[in-house]
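ASSEMBLY PREDICTION REQUEST
Request ID: AP-0331
Submitted by: J.K., bench scientist
Number of chains: two
Total residues: 664
Priority: normal
Notes: Please return the full assembly, not individual chains.
Input sequences:
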Amino acid sequence: MRIAVDVMGGDHAPEAVLQGALKAHSELALETTLVGPPDVIRSFFSTGIPANIHIHPASQVISNSDKPAQALREKKDSSLAQTIRLLKEKQVDAAISAGNSGAQLAISLFDLGRLEGISRPAIAATLPTLTGKVILIDAGANTDCKPNNLVEFALMGKIYAKEMLEIDNPRVALISNGHEESKGNELVQQSYPLLREKEKNFIGNLEGRDILSGQADVLVCDGFTGNLILKFAEGLAFSIYDFIKTDIKKHPTHLIGLLLIRGILKSFKQKIDWREHGGAPLLGVDGAVIFAHGASDAYAVASGIRTAYTLHQKNILQKIKEKINGTSKSHQ
Amino acid sequence: MRIAVDVMGGDHAPEAVLQGALKAHSELALETTLVGPPDVIRSFFSTGIPANIHIHPASQVISNSDKPAQALREKKDSSLAQTIRLLKEKQVDAAISAGNSGAQLAISLFDLGRLEGISRPAIAATLPTLTGKVILIDAGANTDCKPNNLVEFALMGKIYAKEMLEIDNPRVALISNGHEESKGNELVQQSYPLLREKEKNFIGNLEGRDILSGQADVLVCDGFTGNLILKFAEGLAFSIYDFIKTDIKKHPTHLIGLLLIRGILKSFKQKIDWREHGGAPLLGVDGAVIFAHGASDAYAVASGIRTAYTLHQKNILQKIKEKINGTSKSHQ
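STATUS: Completed
Returned structure:
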């Protein structure tokens, strides 16, 4: 697979991104295009650039404080814009960035366009649960949604879960404030009957305490709610880990206990660690764009590239396209 | 203080509620009215009813599956309706129920009415953080809100935090999907400038990962979002606790580790345990109504009564009334 990597995107760019790209490149059958200032990239490879790694020049950088619309208009030669452009021109099969996610969204929508039948592309994040994984869609692309958007998210999320999590018939649920059909805000209440009609494996509403329960494989919500869930889980899990570690260190007997159970703490941390779960694709645009976490280290970048690889190998975007065409035709 | 307790409300009613009421009664200067079927209540007190505990009869029970509007109309003699009625008629100073929260909300709004100047009463929950506590408002009363509702929530939440958490000048934040003013869904974006204008201690937006960080004392959001946060935190915290405990039990060396660090696990569980943090009042109605968790055991019921007691002792509802009057007058 050919992948374009935005070398300048993310809190730990360019080093972490370059290290992560190199790590993924050494593990997978990749042709990797690193996008950014050539001198920065070259100086990273002191012993020469490996085979099948290319440099695509970009002179500008989009920072996290740049406004998306302005970045789209004014930073045409940014590493992010050039990364997406390579995808648009089909010079690569997938693109990844850990940079300004608002700008990445705006540029992707503008350059790649939406799939026919999809009114709003959405970010599909894989959320670690304590028993497995769940797909959260929309994880942050659309803060305000309409019921038909949520129906589209469910359709795309189901195909994504089926392929990525290898589940035959993913169970789809709406995130709400109670299980009954009458619960929810206006959006959820209006979406419920549509989903019941269109998704044969729609299991109804799930509430906050069910999110990590493993009762559903796809959790559907607006992007404001999805972003909140994703970031809250991240914050809470790490706070708890820190709490246990800090408290343990205070007491000598606890320290012995810590040594005895450090395997557990490690496996616990691994379970809650978003770096393990790769990047999140923007589903519904015409191209494979992966959003990596802004705080990505090399490990997380490599994990995001692995997500892009699987997305490509399993031809998931094509399957989504076909499903949408099938669905819209069956409704004609 | 005189308190009315809905004996039949909650998953573990009536036993847990009666035990909890008795526990609180033995600790605080209370005149307790137990509301429910007299024979049920009497059979609990095998050795006679203690001094200052009264029985108020109610022949019906509102179940969790009862629709709020229907319960309000058709179950006039339910333990919940009678509990709120005692408050309405000023026979008691506060009322508490762990029962159907939708019905409790409907009956409270109908019987007690809103405070002048408050368009939407809201539930103020105390969320345990790993460093202290934070007030979450609205924790579930209003699924869809307008910007002026959020301004009212902030005002009420600030007074509540000041008195309950004993913080001189509580910091108020909006829950959003990013820190910048431009972030948020439509509701949040429209509320931001209003809060900046009206709340001198408004610190802006906080996102999911900041919720437990202790950066704010009052977190303002619509009730759909608040309910999600509350229930998600509860589910996640308990999942993690279970995970650690289960994993520890699998390995003999881990078991020794567990014995050495069980103090930590206990203090951790205590920190995340909603039972420690009492009930949540509905602020903005003309009376002290406490919502206890549906799964309340005796401990949680007693903790909720303690919240009611403090609310009354500190005259918090009166302070909210005065503040609203002051605010609305200063705008005339």
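REVIEWER COMMENTS: Chain B touches chain A through 58 residues (CB under 8 Å).
SIGN-OFF: pending second reviewer
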